[in-house]
Design a protein that fits this description.
The protein is α+β, with helices and mostly antiparallel strands and 372 residues long. It has three domains: 3-109, Ubiquitin-like (UB roll) (Roll); 115-247 and 343-371, Alpha-helical ferredoxin (Fumarate Reductase Iron-sulfur Protein, Chain B, domain 2, Orthogonal Bundle); 249-337, no CATH class. It contains 16 helices and nine strands. It has helices at residues 34-44, 79-84, 115-121, 141-151, 158-161, 164-168, 175-185, 193-202, 215-219, 226-240, 249-263, 268-277, 288-306, 312-316, 323-337, 347-350, and strands at residues 3-10, 20-27, 64-67, 70-73, 92-96, 103-105, 108-109, 138-140, 369-371. Helix 3 packs parallel to helix 7 and helix 8 (193-202) crosses helix 10 (226-240). It starts with a strand and ends with a strand.
Length: 372
Amino acid sequence: MPDYTLRIRRYNPETGKAPYWDQYTVTLDTHEAVLTGILEVKNRHDGSLGVRCSCRSAICGSCGMRINGQPGLACNTQVGDAVKRSKDGSNTIVIEPMGNMPVIRDLIVDMDAVHWKKVGRVTPWLLAKEPVPEREYIVPRESMVDVTQTMACIQCGSCVSDCLAMEADPEFIGPAALAKAYRFVGDPRDAQHQQRLEDLAEDPHGLYTCTHCFKCIDACPKDVAPMSQIMRLRRIAGQDHHIEDVNNGERHEQAFVVLIKKYGLLAEADIVPRSYGGNGITGGKFSPKSGQQIAQSLPFLVKAVLRGKVSIKETLIPHRLAPEDRAQIKTIFETVKGREKRNELNLYITGYDEDGDPHTEPVSTDKEGATA
């Protein structure tokens, strides 16, 4: 069996010393888990190493950490796969605690301070409709399969660790908590869908803070796809419940839709006026709110122009696709709008992942009741 070098980030806040790195050599089979190597280090080399683990079966979510720059479960990451991500091509595995959470010791982070606090923020329990039935609720089968994707979350915190929006805004509710919120917004037994959505949409650190970076989707070991659940919450809030939030999130998304439909491409100069002033005939250009927002953005725009990042001509005169291309885009819009039911592209509903490979058995969308 080959030798591997585990380069582990060490830190104990109680000592007052800065973080440092320790290196250990372990002999492992390529198919063994990184956690096996970490526990060998703790048992044979340094018993003071702080690491959290339990089931070793990718179920409890305790052993979340960054392995060669990528968040994941140490028990679910084979050393052979980890070294493939090595920057220098060596058998070195760099192991760090998860990001966006304070470190308690070495590889152990304080999930109560961030992760669980944010999960609690979204009221993570069912608010049952009245009257509560004497026995069980009977709900459509596809409705419960729909929320199964978010129920698969094991609360490991990997998505929180790599969330770029949380790095920029630590108050952001975060991918794990918002995915948990969809578990109840998507549940037909919950009585307060409207209130939940209004709460999350109106929060300045809520639904519309996500930057669509896809990092949480890459990080999740259970295919929960938190960003996809956030996008679904947005669609339900805006298109189904028509919630016009104070953050202009719904109008901002509508601005993108209107401009793509109109030009085939994004007209950057129209984004701010439409987002803050609406998508009427004038496109929000004469709205006091949009004028105020444009004025606040001027210093940033001036810097962008001076550094060659933005062209004034190209910004003020939007590009347009050829008429035949715009016609194709118009056909796409008409096709989507013409559907009786919105296609949410849920992995657990379609039965296929983005590469077209079977993942689960396709689910029938009949309306027969199923016991939940």
